[in-house]
Amino acid sequence: MLIGKILSNRYEIIEQIGQGGMAIVYKARDQLLNRYVAIKVLRPEFVNDEQFIKKFKRESQAAASLSHHNIVNIYDIGVQENIHYIVMELINGKTLKEFIQQNGRVDWKKAVHIAIQIASALEHAHKNHIIHRDIKPHNIILTQEEVVKVADFGIARAITSSTITQVTDTMGSVHYLSPEQARGGFVNEKSDLYSLGIVLYEMITGEVPFKGDTSVTVALKHIQEEVVPPIKINPSIPESLNLVILRLLKKNPDERYANASVLIKDLNHIYLEPETPIMQNDFDENAPTQVTPIIGKIEEGGNDNKEDKQKYLKHKKTKKFSLILSLILVFLIASILGALAYSLKDYFNVNEVKVPNVENLSIDDAIDILNQKNLRYQIVERKNSTEFEKNIVISQDPKAGEVVKENQIIKLVISEGAQKIMIPNLIGQYESEAINQINNLGLEVGEVKYEYNNEYEKGVVFHQNPDKNVEVEEGTKINLYVSKGKETIKAPSLIGKHLEEAKEILNSMGLNIGKIEYKASDTYEKDIVINQNPKPNGDLSQNSAIDIILSSGKVTTKNIQVDLKKYKVSKEENIDQNNSNNDDKNLEEKSSENSSEENNSVKVTIELTDYQDNTTETVYQKQHLLSEGVLQIPIQGTGIQIYTVKINDKIIEQNTISFE
């Protein structure tokens, strides 16, 4: 088997996709250009047949010389280990025959559009002196975009500008043969146009014009019978299209279109203006000038000269003799075929076999087993599977154990292995979103771990394994790491710790000192923490800060002496004071009152200013009579501070005081 074989160290055979009379067609991968191609391989039974080898080489050379968008491209030709092959363009689509079978009659506009493309391919081939000789729907492929690709120049022959190749054997499909091919006569470009006419007829009507029980019957109809006009079968087509088809199907090649170019011109005209009549010119503009005899006058005698009449009668006799000879040849062929069928009747009695079980086997093993049972195979589908490895048979039809005829096709479904999936980026998604995306892609959720993360909020994926943009098989497990939010730390107790010790504790825990304030303390010495925020055991995230209040020293009491006798109250102050203390008295009583200085009241204020932070605090404020004389006012404080004495908001004294 060629499955898995590599030709010319380049083309890897993957599967069989078709077969014809001379060759088997495989799908292959071009390892050099990394693309899929079709490879046509000559059947093993013909490799020693010189005639077939010549035909196969002729196909290679003829098709490789053509380059047209409506012709299947030929990439390479070669021979390896007596394997003769052609590398061709791989077309994804269906044959025109399959299209007609599925859809029946084709809309006439679509049929004309397809016919224009076929004619365009033939025009290119004919200009390169290549006659296809086997135009039929089976050899015409429609891509998914309905672009026509003419394939299988399997029996094409090159012609020179001065000679026309004579057919030695008729190989084309009988329903699409031109009359000259059916007679074994001369073949030229107009034979391809006749076959195209049959294809167009079948598209329009849904059926071929000539049918019969045997190929001989059909061949005779091509030679002798006129076609039923397609408009009688499908009245919806324009009369102009009906005339074009009838002209293509003329028995006499000279009455057909001169070439594909003229045909394309008429088809384009019909497509755009179907109701406008087309010109029916029956002569070839490029043919050499010749005299056309007027048959009616010759037969009547008329006024023509004797020599012309004799030429005509000779031509008529020759034509009659050729027809008789053709009928004799057809009779002989029919007789030979009948005798051959009788002698080989036992050969067609096909044995029955039980279908073996090839499921769960590799494709190579399955093919070997089917070959041993004289059964053929067809790979109808390749699909991804997580259950079966690549190139393993998933299912078969008919099933194992069924009894079938030898050479019957067993349809196989082959595994392509698990589907390859590109892992998406899940980082930054919430856990539920990431899980939904994993499941929708045909992947599975593996282990989910929850960890603290300072960059991603709680519930968000911050890491995945495997990583993004990695290609994995369907069903692969994806592990997720989900954030629990920022990691929390219990605030330590710093109260009673010296400032430097507090810093060391916070640094070791990944925390920082925040705002520092100083306050006097009855208990703690200077620079000892007396309070903190947050409080001990409060939850903190990494790199958070703790504000602390430090002791500015232990509180002690010192007396500040204020001598009121040194202060003289001005008249204005006295009046202001009386006004403020006697709001309910009338003005005359106040002014008549003549108090002594000793009875005057003043406001005494003492302020302390801290040396370290330069903050000022009022620590004493009270009304006193001047008569009280010298005051000893007790003040509490820490360290060395500046005190300020004010009487009635005027600075009387400012000095330093030590509370140590």
UniProtKB/TrEMBL annotation:
The transmembrane segments are 321-344
Supply the PROSITE patterns for this chain: PASTA, PROTEIN_KINASE_ATP, PROTEIN_KINASE_DOM, PROTEIN_KINASE_ST
What's the name of the protein? non-specific serine/threonine protein kinase
Alphabetized UniProt keyword annotations: ATP-binding, Kinase, Membrane, Nucleotide-binding, Serine/threonine-protein kinase, Transferase, Transmembrane, Transmembrane helix
Q: Which InterPro entries match?
A: Kinase-like_dom_sf, PASTA_dom, Prot_kinase_dom, Protein_kinase_ATP_BS, Ser/Thr_kinase_AS
Q: Name one Pfam family in it.
A: Pkinase
Keyword Membrane in record: yes
| SMART domains from the UniProt entry | PASTA, S_TKc
The UniProt entry, under CDD domains, shows:
PASTA_pknB (cd06577), STKc_PknB_like (cd14014)
Q: Which organism is it from?
A: Garciella nitratireducens DSM 15102
User: Where are stretches of biased composition, namely Basic and acidic residues?
Assistant: 582-592
Could you tell me which residue ranges the Protein kinase domain spans? 11-272
Q: Where is this region: Disordered?
A: 573-602
Q: Does the keyword Membrane apply?
A: yes
Q: Please write the reaction equations for the catalytic activity of this protein.
A: L-threonyl-[protein] + ATP = O-phospho-L-threonyl-[protein] + ADP + H(+); L-seryl-[protein] + ATP = O-phospho-L-seryl-[protein] + ADP + H(+)
